Structures are given as C-alpha cells and as structure tokens.
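Entry:
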Amino acid sequence: MKIKDYLDKFLKLDKKHQGYILGFVIAAGILLWAFISAGIMTADFNRSKLNNASDRQEVKTRGIIITETKDKKKYWEIYGETGNYNNADKKAELDNIIGNFYKENEVSMSFSAVHGTYDEVDKTITLREKVFIVIQDGTSLKSDELIWQGNDKDILANGNVIIERNGEMTAVADHAIISPDFNKFKIKGKSQTKVYGK
C-alpha cells in the first residue's frame, strides 16, 4: 500500500477514531523524541572501571551539579560544565564552575572559577583559576584559589587576592581569610588597602 491509500483510509474514519490515531502518533513521536534526546544528552557520559587494587571507578560527564542539603536547608550548590568523579579518593573535579552558598535558604555568596574540586571525605570545596565571588552585601573578591572548609570555618583565598567593597574600599593581598558569616576579611602577606570617601 502507498501512503495515499493509508491517508484515504484515515480520512474515511469517524472523528473519534481519527483522534485516537492522532493521539497515538503524537504520543509515539514524543516518546521517540525523548529517547533520541536522552541518547544525545548522555552520549558524553563515560563510565570506565579501572581494574587495580582498589577497584576504582571514575565517571566523566557534562553538566554536573553537586549540592549539600540538610533538614530541608540548602547550604551550597556547584554546577560544573564538565567534570568527573573518582570513587577511590571520593573527589569530584569540575571545570567552568558557577555556584552559590546559602544562609537561611537565601543566596549569601555566588562564585565562579575555571576549575574546582569537591572532596567528599573532608567536605571541602577548592576553587582554582580566575576565582570570582560576590557576597550578598555587594563585596567582591578575586583570587587564584579559594578554599571553603565548612559552614563554621574560615574561607581561605590565596594568590593575587583583590577585595572590593561597594566602591568604598579596595584591598590587594597575597592571602585573605574570610569569616564563615562573610562579614569580616583579614588580609595577609604583601598587601595594600585603599579606602575611598563618599
């Protein structure tokens, strides 16, 4: 049979049967689209099992999100454009990172970096290369590296640290220590601070 014959048979059916057939064709089309899309999206998802003494597994993927949530409170989230997770050392390596830290379910600090690591054992986040953070009060910080060690511990910024606070102050230093509540900064090493009047 030709397509024209099928079309003629379809047009001879009553509206109810035409509706069933169209609904089935649309549903089948959506399912086909979903399977093809899922195949395309997960094509870069490579899972390789390495056979050594620790029987290590490593997952490489695109678009990885890691979050920490306790008692329905989100503490932080990190999105990496690409990344991999190694179960032997329990570390996730991410590239082209953006993310947020939260206090009382509101964003208190946003950040971006070229590379970063989440250590599941130590519960630390290390951002590297072109690190940029903005705190809720408008204060910004740039550095080569930033180490977050937990909600109740100081945040460490290392290498070419530049802190700017709402056009009132600029500080340049080798290192900076940020209080867990993001309210205080301590600069260390070779440093220079400029305070501007309003």
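The longest strand covers residues 57-70.
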